[in-house]
């Protein structure tokens, strides 16, 4: 064998990129099943004669169980292989989604929506675990940005499709068909996904590339699992009593508040208040550009010698500030201008989406997992609060108070990163 032949045979394979595509598609489905209720809400509320308050409660139902199951879901992720857990969660939340299309009343819809939220809770921790196992550190940021962009690509492409589907086949089929897609994808995940050492087509060179770059290729092997100390209340006290950590907790609540507004009430606003058609996709495309650009800009600032705090915080602060542009919708009757204002706001939400980078930079070294769990839990309380608050603020003829509320929330987020987080440095225990 020549030296050239040896070089060819030892060149790392690229099976990990297939895994990235699997994660991306799963995120698309994940967010499709979060947003389908918003699309169906106008027709559904008319059929069941729901008030805006009831609509807000129904839209928030997902968030109750999604937030409550964050810590138990993380516990499961540490103990059940991604191949099994993700397939199981996909089937369960997709079945609940499918049965929403067959439900005959408000109570049944709430119960099923609670189930969707609970079964989706482990999704992002699974994504993170898979990315950690399959990708070296130098590729991981781009991969996380890639699969995270799936939430906006799915919304941008599927929102008008699902709206059209509802018009043609009634709102029931929005849930039935999206649920069926999830069940099919669960089977695909089960048959295709494997751990790095178990995946066919992966050569040793790719395994070595991942492992040498900080990828945890043996994270699921018995030998790699160490006995971990039990959670102590003193640890919980640490992550709940540090000003800098509360800065990112509150900032995440404000950021995800805008995201949940976009996922819940915004599609209803488009249907009930303005004529947007396929222009409704533009804000989601803007958010996609924002989320992809934010990681690149932040890494570029680090490369140029700016401090880690500036590189990570500045995109978040700028993005949150841009979200305030949604207030412009209160001062125009032009559908085109409303879409422009919302596209700027959506771009800002995407551009601010690198908040997880501050968890690893600020959290006490021994309490990375606990800090991340608290960060995600408090942040996702917005999935409960936002739909309910807006449901009681808006009326059948006036949506303006919702935009005022969301603008105020984003300003609070900016202030929390400026004054509470302050200098980016690891918190001492």
UniProtKB/TrEMBL annotation:
Nucleotide-binding as a keyword of this entry, yes or no, is no
Q: Which UniProt keywords apply?
A: Membrane, Transmembrane, Transmembrane helix
Q: Name one GO cellular component term.
A: plasma membrane
Q: Does the keyword DNA repair apply?
A: no
Task: List, alphabetically, the InterPro entries matched.
Answer: MFS, MFS_dom, MFS_Na/Anion_cotransporter, MFS_trans_sf, Sugar_P_transporter
Q: Name one GO molecular function term.
A: transmembrane transporter activity
| PROSITE patterns given in the database record | MFS
| Topology in the lipid bilayer | Multi-pass membrane protein
Main location, first listed in the record: membrane
The leader peptide range reads none
Q: Where are the bilayer-spanning segments?
A: 15-32, 84-112, 171-192, 246-266, 278-302, 314-331, 337-362, 374-394, 400-420
Q: Where in the cell is it found?
A: Cell membrane
Q: Where is the Major facilitator superfamily (MFS) profile domain?
A: 19-425
User: Which Pfam families is this protein grouped with?
Assistant: MFS_1
PANTHER family for this protein: D-GALACTONATE TRANSPORTER, SOLUTE CARRIER FAMILY 17
Protein's UniProt name: MFS transporter
């Amino acid at each position: 064998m020549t030296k050239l032949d040896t070089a060819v045979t030892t060149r790392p394979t690229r099976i990990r990129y297939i895994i990235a595509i699997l994660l991306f598609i799963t995120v698309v489905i994940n967010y499709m099943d979060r947003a389908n209720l918003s699309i169906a809400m106008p027709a559904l509320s008319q059929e069941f004669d729901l008030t805006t308050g009831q609509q807000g409660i129904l839209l928030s139902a997902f968030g109750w169980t999604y937030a409550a199951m964050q810590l138990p879901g993380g516990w499961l992720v540490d103990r059940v292989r991604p191949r099994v857990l993700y397939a199981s969660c996909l089937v369960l939340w997709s079945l609940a989604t499918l049965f929403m299309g067959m439900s005959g009343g408000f109570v049944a819809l709430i119960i099923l929506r609670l189930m969707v939220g609970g079964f989706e809770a482990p999704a992002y921790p699974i994504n993170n675990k898979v990315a950690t196992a399959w990708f070296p550190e130098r590729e991981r940021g781009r991969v996380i940005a890639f699969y995270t962009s799936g939430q906006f690509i799915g919304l941008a492409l599927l929102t008008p499709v699902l709206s059209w589907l509802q018009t043609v086949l009634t709102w029931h089929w929005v849930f039935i068909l999206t649920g069926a897609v999830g069940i099919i994808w669960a089977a695909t995940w089960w048959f295709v996904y494997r751990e790095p050492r178990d995946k066919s087509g992966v050569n040793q060179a790719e395994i070595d590339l991942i492992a040498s770059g900080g990828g945890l290729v043996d994270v699921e092997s018995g030998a790699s699992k160490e006995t971990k100390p039990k959670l102590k209340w003193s640890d919980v006290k640490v992550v709940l009593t540090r000003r800098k950590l509360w800065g990112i907790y509150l900032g995440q609540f404000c950021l995800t508040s805008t995201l949940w507004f976009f996922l819940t009430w915004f599609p209803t606003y488009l249907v009930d208040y303005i004529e947007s058609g396929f222009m409704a996709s533009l804000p989601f495309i803007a958010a996609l550009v924002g989320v992809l650009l934010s990681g690149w800009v932040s890494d570029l600032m680090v490369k140029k010698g700016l401090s880690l705090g500036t590189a990570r915080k500045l995109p978040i602060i700028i993005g949150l500030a841009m979200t305030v542009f949604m207030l412009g919708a209160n001062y125009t009757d032009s559908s085109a201008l409303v879409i422009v204002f919302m596209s700027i706001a959506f771009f800002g939400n995407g551009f601010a989406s690198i908040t997880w980078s501050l968890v690893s930079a600020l959290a006490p070294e021994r309490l990375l997992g606990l800090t991340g769990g608290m960060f995600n839990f408090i942040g996702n309380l917005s999935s409960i609060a936002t739909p309910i608050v807006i449901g009681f603020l808006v009326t059948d003829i006036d949506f303006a108070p919702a935009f005022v509320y969301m603008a105020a929330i984003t300003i609070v987020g900016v202030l929390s990163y400026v004054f509470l987080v302050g200098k980016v440095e690891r918190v001492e225990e």
